[in-house]
Amino acid sequence: MVSSGEGERRVRPMGDAALLVEVDSLAQVLTLHAALAASAPPGVIDLVPAARTVLVQIDPRVLSPAAARTWIARTDGDALPDAVRPDAPGAVPVRTLDIVYDGDDLAETAELLGLSPLALASRHEAAAWTVAFSGFAPGFGYLVSPD
Q1: In angstroms, how far is the first alpha carbon of the chain from the final one?
Q2: How far apart are CA 18 and CA 135, in angstroms?
């Protein structure tokens, strides 16, 4: 386990060419991912964020797993400049999407929340959403919102 300004990190090997970094929250994932991306040494092939993990894929001929582990341990998201902080205003481009609220589960979901379908659609549309990470299907983004 590695302690950092963002809390505890658990770094686990994933075969010979990757490390899985486990953290306690999605906010920690987003900060860690941004910090790793901003400081990636040669040999880092990909960084894949998820709900509570960041997969660090490496080329072990260029960056050994031990060196990657050291880099991960030394990477501090608290030291990120505002320009690359995931929570900084304007850090993420804003996209507006046209949405039609007519799914088969709209009425049931609204009822579970104690809302009318129109109220649910209005609240959903008014919220600011962020794609936290991509899912298992191409183009499927997991959305989060403080709203």
Answers
A1: 33
A2: 19
